[in-house]
Amino acid sequence: MYQIYGGVPLQGKVKIQGSKNAALPVLAATLLTGEESFIFNCPQIIDVQHMAKILTSLGCKVRRMEDGYLIDSSQAFCCGMSGDAITGMRSSLCLLGAMLGRFGKIVMEHPGGCVIGERPIDLHLKALEKMGVVFEESGETLTGHVEKLQGARIRLTFPSVGATENVLLAAVMAEGDTELTGAAREPEITTLCEFLTACGAEIHGIGSSMLRIRGGRKLHGTQFRVPADRIVAGTYLFACVGCGGNIFLEDAPCSQMETVIHAAECMGAQCQLTGSQAVSEKGLYVQGPERPRAVSRLRTEVYPGFPTDLQSIALAVLTKAAGKSIVEETIFENRFRVLESLKRMGANVELYTPKTAIIHGVDRLHGAAVEAQELRGGAALVLAGLMADGKSEITGCEFIRRGYEKIGEDLTDLGARIISV
Predict the structure, then answer these.
(1) CATH entry, 20-225, from 3.65.10.10, 3.30.1120.10, 3.50.70.10, 3.30.9.10
(2) Cα 323 from chain centre
(3) How many other CB atoms are found less than 10 A from the CB of residue 272?
(4) How far apart are the first and last CA of the chain?
(5) What is the CA radius of gyration of the chain?
(6) How far apart are CA 419 and CA 261, in angstroms?
(7) Neighbours of 129 (CB within 10 A)
């Protein structure tokens, strides 16, 4: 549980952790090399720890280091994957492509994760079926097998990050070339491509919606550094927008955050990117407003649009903005589960349609006892607690720790009054 005493402007500097959404598929991809790899800058969060446990259960030698993981997949074997590490972590789904690429088969329980919508896996299965995989479902178990993966022309009807990752992981091991159109363009996809090419893969069109993968090249182990987490950086950026003050986000990946920074500036923040030759520290300076400004409409979109992972966090800030704001969610239908908790803290928010929330900013929020129900909604409640008068108690913090290495310590370093109980 977090106990938060709100109403304090933020001041100081904090270093942004490694990216959760980039680290997980990279860790899964180490299965493909059959050699030793060192993955630097892995965040020490629950989801990464779960992925390490899964790799260990598959026969990999996994050693946690101070700045990452040393993984030797030479003795990995194929076995059924079950248990909390699978059903409690949606990102375990990227093991589909990795296991099929390494062993030609997979048996796993359906992955779980945060309750933010249906998030069907049809796109993943249909794409891999194009490469020759045969899937069978029995109860909660998914089985897939293929004698030899074949390169294919695959078109995604929606730019799913997970489906793009699975196609990449399978295609680099397939016989022949794969052309993927409609691919997701998120920075985490670029990171996975960069890791695979560092291991010897040949991938063209990195960063675009069309990827061409030359299959069948021998992959080898490597050393690789996971980039900073754009969602964590965005969370702390919006914390400063909501609380006021001045902070520096060291290593913030500003080039990946253009729409996020723009939204923060529309709310009244002053942002300055650093990292030129004249400035030694790379990151983002943020000066928060005295009170956030309302925005006429904030709409989530696939990258490079505003990320769904920051929607509830931005919405929490807008509850104290001067004026009326509209937030539209186009990716996951259950992102607005946090609204009831925000109302308990005095927010004036209403669900206009299942995809649209209307926020009338209030002068003050007040502390309350609330429960996190999913990762980003939990982070939104932390921000609401920082902005509120009095004491807030937030339970369900295990959800928050799935994505934030030390959110309590980081915000405390910025002057917030947070106690982890």
Answers:
(1) 3.65.10.10
(2) 30
(3) 13
(4) 5
(5) 21
(6) 29
(7) 15
Residue given tokens 């860790």 in the structure block: 27
Residue 299, C-beta contacts closer than 8 angstroms, at least 6 positions apart: 305, 306, 327, 328, 330
Mean pLDDT of 400-416: 97
- pTM comes to 0.94
- The whole-angstrom separation of Cα 365 and Cα 14 is 26
Q: How many CA atoms lie within 13 A of 149 on its CB side?
A: 29
- DSSP sequence for 199-261: TT-EEESTTSSEEEEE--PPP---EEEPPB-HHHHHHHHHHHHHH-EEEEEET--GGG-HHHH
114 carries an active-site annotation: yes
Q: Which of 42, 94, 114, 199 is catalytic?
A: 114
CB 199 within 8 A of CB 30: no
pLDDT at 114: 47
- Maximum CA pair distance of the chain? 63
Predicted local distance difference test score (pLDDT) of residue 84:
53
pLDDT of residue 138: 85
Q: Which amino acid is at 75?
A: Q
User: Could you tell me if 40 and 66 are in contact, meaning their C-beta atoms sit under 8 angstroms apart?
Assistant: no
Residues of the chain with CATH 3.65.10.10: 2-17+228-420, 20-225
H or E stretch covering 354? none
pLDDT surpassing 50 at residue 117: no
User: Could you give the C-alpha distances from 399 to 71, 120, 183, in angstroms and in order?
Assistant: 26, 21, 29
Give kind and range of the element (H or E) at residue 340: helix 339-344
DSSP SS3 for 57: helix
Please give the class, per CATH, of domain 2-17+228-420: alpha beta
